[in-house]
Amino acid sequence: MPLGGVLLFLLGGVLAGGVLAFVYIYAIWYIPFVYINFFLCLGFGLVLGGILMMLAKAGKLRSPTGVGLLALLVGLAAVYLEWSVYLTLLFNAETTGAGRDADTSTSFSASMWADVLTHPAAMWEAIGKINETGTWSLKGATPSGVFLALIWVVELLVIVGGAYWLARSQATEPFSEATNEWADEETLPHPIGYAQDADHVRTALETGQYHTLTPHEMQSETEPFARLKLHRAPNDGNCQYLTLENVTTKVDDKGKATQSTTTVVQHLAISTAAYEELKKRFGQLQA
C-alpha cells in the first residue's frame, strides 16, 4: 500500500464521488420516473467502483483488505456528498400552484452547498425531518418513517457496496513484487472441455496435471465449455498464473444469448514451461 497510491486513491475517489453525486442527484431530481432510481443508484455505485479500480491499479495498491477499507471510506464520502447536494436543491426549492398544477423549481447555490457540507449535525437533523414526511410519492403514497429509512439504507449499501466490491477485486490481481508491475491478462481463444467436477479439476491443476484440460469443439452456441486465462508480468519470468472458468450460455425467447461464468480456479501460480505449453495448446483456434 504505497503512500502515494493511497493519497491518489482517496483524493481521486472523493473527487469522482463528488462529480457522480451531482450527476446522480440531478438525475433523480429531474427525471420523473421513480422506478428507474434504483438503476441510477446502481450506476452510481458501479461507476464509482470502476474509477476506484483504475486508481488502485495506478497507485499499485495490492492489499485487498487495505483497498477495501479505503473504498468504504470513499463510498461513505460519496453518500455524504450526495446528501449535501440533495439538501441544497431541496432548501432552494419553490413550489407554485397546487394539486396536479403544482410545479417545483430549484437552483443550486454554491454558498449554501458549502454551508450544508460543513455542518453534518444540521444535515442529520434535516434528514430526520425529511424522514417524518417524505418528499416524493409512488402511486399516490408518500414513503416516510421506517420504510423510507430502509430505502435510504439500500441506497447506501448499493453505492458503498459497488465501490468496495470493484475496488477490492483489483487488489487481488496478480502483481510482480520483483519488477513492481501488474501482470497482463490474456484470454486464450480455444474453448476447453467443461469442468463437470470442479473440485477434481482444481486439485489436478494444483498438482501440475495440465493434461486434464482438453480442447473442446463447439457444436452449438448453447453448449457449456471452459475458458482459460493466463496472467504474466511483462518483465518477470517467474510471475505466471492461470484462471479457469466454466461458461454456460442461455438464449432467451428473442434469441439473445447470455453467458454466465463460474470460477473453477483463480490465479494459480504456474511455471514458465506450463505457461508456454498451455498457450501453445489453446492459444489459437484450429482452422
What can you see in these coordinates?
The structure is a single chain. With 287 residues, the chain is α+β, with helices and mostly antiparallel strands. It folds into two domains: 3-172, no CATH class; 177-282, no CATH class. It is built from eight helices and eight strands. The strands form three sheets. A four-stranded antiparallel sheet has the order 5-6-7-8, covered by helices on one side. Strand 1 (94-96) and strand 2 form a beta hairpin.
Structural class of the helix and strand makeup?
alpha+beta
Proportion in helices: 40-55%
Mean pLDDT: 90
- What general form does the structure show? elongated
Number of helical stretches of at least 4 residues: 8
Instruction: Kindly provide the radius of gyration, computed on alpha-carbon positions and rounded to a whole number of angstroms.
Output: 25 Å
SSE order: HHHEEHHHEEEHEEEH
Number of strand elements: 8
What's the N-to-C terminus distance?
46 Å
For the report, how would you describe the main beta sheet? 4 strands, antiparallel
Strand arrangement in the largest pleated sheet:
5-6-7-8
As for the number of domains, it is: 2
Strand content: 15-25%
Unreliable stretches: none
